Amino acid sequence: MPEKRIGVFICHCGTNIAGVVDVAAVSEAVKDLPNVEYVSDYKYVCSKPGQQLLKDEIDKHRLDRIVIAACSPRMHEPTFRQAMRASGLNPYMLEIANIREHVSWIHADNPKAATEKSIDLVRMAIARARLLEPLIEKEVDVKKSTLIIGAGIAGISAALDLANAGFHVTLVEKEPTIGGKMAMWDKTFPTLDCSSCILTPRMAEVSSHPNIELLTIAEVEKVDGFVGNFEVTIKQKPRYVNLETCTSCGDCSDICPVDIPCDFNANLCYRKAIYVPFAQAVPSAYLLDMENCLGVDAVRCGKCKVACEAGAIDYDDAEKIINIEVGTIIVSTGFDIFDATLKPEYGFGEFPNVVNLGEVERMLNSAGPSQGRLVKPSDSKEPQKVVYIQCVGSRDELTNKYCSRVCCMTAVKQARMIRDKTGAQVFIFYIDLRAFGKGYEEFYEATAEAGVTFIRGRVGEVLQNEDYSLTVRGEDTNLGMPVTFDDVDLVVLSTGVVSPESAKKVAKVLNLSPSPDGFLLEAHPKLRPVDSFNDGVFIAGMAQGPKDIPDTVAQAKAAAAGAMALMGKGKISVEPYYSVVDEDKCAGCQVCISVCPYTAIKLNERGVSEVNPALCKGCGTCTSTCPSGAITSQHYTDGQITAMITEYLSSVK
Question: What's the pTM?
Fold first, then answer.
C-alpha cells in the first residue's frame, strides 16, 4: 500500500486568524507528524493565488490528502474541493480544521491558548486525514418541472420566470385566488403606485401561461422522493363552481340570502356564501362557501343554481387528490399580520376605533369596504385625529424580537395618504424609524413636510371614552417626558408580520427547519439565502423572513434561478455523505427506518435496509442506533472519529 502523503495549509485569513493565532507556531508543531509531507501558511488560502498554491504543491509533492486550517467548512469547502479536482485529486480527501470561528473569534483575549487549541485541531485533522477514503459522487436525473407553494407576489414572480424559460410550473395556492397580501394593499411605497396595477397584469399572465398549471384552494399534503425526483401529493378542495363555464356575471351572488364577514376586506364588510374574492381575482370565477351555505337543495335554498344561466354550479363537486412529479420546489408561503389582541394594553378587538395596518389598507383602497374613505368603525365618519403606534408585535421581548421591516414605511405611506385625502392630524409614535430602501428616506422626509408628526417614544396604553373617542398615553423620549393625546378618533396599530400556520405545515412536509423567528431557515444567510438544507427546495419572499416587495421579487427571481440551474443540467451530482448498509449484518429490525429524519431508508425486497443516497444527509442517526452495527456513515467512520479523539488525548498532559 503506497505511503500516505498529507499536505497541510494554514490560512492567516488576513488578521482574522493570524491576529490571534501564531500560525508559524502551528506550522512548526505539525510539520514532523507522521505522513505530513508539506506544511505552508498563506495569507488567504481561499484566494485565487492561494488555490494555485494548493494545486502547485499537490503536483510538486505528490500529495494525496489535504488538511486546511482556516474558516468554517461552510464557507470555502467547495472552493478547496474544486482546486483538488483540478489537480486530479479526489475532492473528498480533504479535512478542514476550523481555527477561525472555533478559535480566533472566540479566544481573541488569549492568543497563547488559541494557538495551543489550533495545534490540537490541526493534529486531529491530520489524524482523520490519514484514514480518508476516496468517494464517488452519484448522478441523478432531474425532472424539468417545478412546484411552487404559495402564489403571492413571490410565487407569481418565480412562476413566470421559470415558465418563460420553458419549464413547467405547478403553482399551488391555498386561497381561492392568487395575489396574496399584495392584492389587498392599496398603494406601494415610496412611489405610491397602485398595488393592483402592478400585480393584476402578472396574475392574468399566470392564468393564461401555457407552462403554468394553477391549483387554487389546494394544499400540499405529502412530498416523497429527492432532489430532481420529488413525488408530490396535493389536495384540492371543491369549488362547487365550474371554472370553465362560469362567466362571473354575479347573478348567483345577487340572489344569495347569506351575509358573512368578508375576510379579504379585513372583516369590515360582508360577502355572500357564493362569491368572488375581488374583482380582478384569478381564477376569475365564483366559488361556493359550503360551510356558510343554507343548503344545496330547492327546499332549503338552492337559489344560486336556479339563477345560474351558464349551469356552472355543481353541488356534487368533490375534493380531488392530485399527484405530480417535479424536479425542484419553491416555497413562498408569505406572511400573516400579527394578532394585536396579544397586546391588550392597546385595546385591539375591544375598542372599535383601534385598527391595524391591514384594515386601514382596505379602507384606503377605492375597491374596499368604504370606497377609499378612511372611517371610524364606530360611526363610519372620517377621523380628524389619528395616532399610529409602531412596532406592535415586533422588537418586543414579550412577542417577537425581530424587526418586521415593512411596518414603518407602511405607516408612513398610509399617513401621507390620509393627509392628502382628508387633512386629518396624524401622529406616529415610533421607537426607531426604519427607512432602509431606495427612496425611502426621501419619502419619509416628504411625509413629515406634509404635516405628519413623528414622536419618538413608546405608547403605554390606549383608553376608550364614553363617546368611543380614545386617549393615548405614552412618552416622548426626545423631550424626556410623558405625553397624553385626548380625543383621538382612530388609533392604528402598526402590526408586524409573522410566519403563517400554513408555512409550518409545509415545513413539516418538506423537512425544512424554522429559524428562531419562526420563518423558514435558509442554508446560509449570505452565500445561499434562498436555498434550504433540503436539496432542490428553495425558499423565497416572506417565507424566509420579513421584507418589502422589491426584496421579495428579487429573492423570488433568485429562487427561480436556483431551480433553473438544477433543472438545466438534466443531471446533478449527489455528495457521497450517505450511509451504507452491510446486508450480511442487517437483521431487518427497522430501527434505522424509525429514526431517520430524512425518510432515506426503506426495506428492500430482500427484507434488509437500503439507503437512498439522494435523500440521506449523512447525519449518522441510523449508524448510532443500529443494534447490529450494520450501517456505516461514509466519510465520517467510527475509525476516523476515534483517530481524532485518540490524537487529542495523546497531547493532553
Answer: 0.86
